[in-house]
Each structure stands twice: as C-alpha cells, then as structure tokens.
Amino acid sequence: MFTARTLLRTLSKQRPILRLYTASPLRTFSTTLIRMSSTPRHFAEDASHKHSLHVVDDKERLERAPYLSPPGPVKGPDGKEKEFKAEYTGQCFCGEVQFEIMGEPLDSSYCHCRDCQHMHGAPYTHHAIFPKSAVHFTKGAKENLIFYNPHEKKTEYKVPCKVTCKSCHSRIADEGNNMMLMLPGLIDWKDGKMAESFKATHHQYYKFRTEDIQDEKAKFDGWKGDEPVNDAAKKMKKEMDKEKKEKEEKEEKDEETVGDQGPDVKRRRKE
Ligand SMILES: [Zn+2]
Ligand SMILES: [Zn+2]
C-alpha cells in the first residue's frame, strides 16, 4: 500500500537529478516514486463529469523544469552541475509541441492498467522516466499545452497530470512531482529505431492485458515488483528487494554515524 505518508517520506529523501546518470539499482526506486495510486489503475476512479479544455498559462509553471527556457543545469552523480545538452528530440503529431531530453531514462515500462487503456485509447502504454530537469520544451510550452488531472478529473495544471498538445491532442507526457514519464513514440529516432535504453524493462498491470504478450520481459499483475507473473519478474523482484535492503542498511548506518556526532549534527543533517 502506497500511502500519502510514504510518498512524502520518499519524496523528501530523493535526489532525482543525480539519477540521470545512474543505472539500474536506482531504477526501481524511481519507479516507486511515480506510484500515483494504490488502486489497480494509474489514477483514482471518480464520478465522471463534463469538462472543457483550457490552457494554463501560469507564471510559476514556466519558471520550473521542464517548462523553463532556457533549461537549467543538470546535476551529475558527482554533484557537479552540467549544462543541459539535448540528446534526444521529440514532438507531437502536428509539431506545435517540441521537446528535447538529456541523458537516458531511469526506467521504461509498458502499462496495461485501465487508466492507460482509457486515456490513451490503446491496449497498453509505453513510458520512459526522466527527472524533470532532463526534459526541456523547445516549442509550445507556454501556449500549446493542456493539462488534465485524473485524480480530480479536472483540466487544470495540478500534478500528477497528463500533458497534451492543445492542437492535435497528442499525449506528450505524464507529469509527476519530480519526474516526467515521456512517451518514446514521440521521439525522433536518428535511424528510425528506438534507442536500446528506452526499451521497456517490464510489463505492469499485466492482468488487464487485452491479449498475451509473447516476450521475455518481466510481467507483473500489479506495479513493478507487485505480483510477479513469470520467472523474469520473480528475478527482478528479488533484485529489487536486495537493493531495497542494502539501501535501508546503508541509511541505518548513516543515521548511526550521524548519531555519534551528537543531536545537533543529526538534526541539521536531517533538514
Ligand atoms: Zn500537436
Ligand atoms: Zn497505466
């Protein structure tokens, strides 16, 4: 069960920018961050009501990644800040919304949940996760995006939300508090072939599949790590549990070390 309290605790501990350059050990943790609901859907169910699409042109949004332009620096694992450098570019169907991405995804997955099926009109979706600072909109960020908050079923900019092109209605991304779930289908692949790093590592909410998928990827009936379906998923879950345990042990050790330095240091370190 992923409660609001655990979410807050997780968010307060994370340093998403550092993960831009990290490999698999942190991937599972990042995936946990985007668990937006404990229901078997991406977003909570609610009574339906009519809504009209509108553009949110709030100043605050445009002052932060990924809408900030020019983009801010991206912090590497060594703590040093690097200048944003576009490594991938992408756009919506009509081209009124364009974006660029720095670095490789923290994780990538196929989601078969009912929310995805409804909101994308597809049997399943493909998302690649990036810290917000690694994404930069080069066109349309101010006047050509519309937002939809599935929790409240409202067309307003309130994360987590769906980000869509106002003109052609292509889905651009799922925006969380710190992460962007980008859709690899929108990226301009240099040779027409998707980069290896964007390929999905697993299927989630596989129990809602419209048909069996014949691949070797890990399959979970719930979120990544929950209800493994095949051997690949069991193996992935084992690795996730191991990483989680190691991380917890390290944190405990760090706490003890800080504790030795007295309560004032301990308090300062926590702030
Ligand atoms: Zn468009
Ligand atoms: Zn989904």
UniProtKB/TrEMBL annotation:
* Keyword annotations from UniProtKB, A to Z: Lyase, Metal-binding, Zinc
Which residue ranges does the record assign to the CENP-V/GFA domain? 88-207
- KW Metal-binding (keyword) present: yes
Please list the residue ranges that the record marks as compositionally biased, kind Basic and acidic residues.
219-250
Q: Which GO terms describe its molecular function?
A: carbon-sulfur lyase activity; metal ion binding
Superkingdom of this entry's organism? Eukaryota
Q: Which InterPro entries match?
A: CENP-V/GFA, Mss4-like_sf
Q: Which family does it belong to?
A: Belongs to the Gfa family.
> In its UniProt entry, what is this protein called?
CENP-V/GFA domain-containing protein
Which species does this protein come from? Saitoella complicata (strain BCRC 22490 / CBS 7301 / JCM 7358 / NBRC 10748 / NRRL Y-17804)
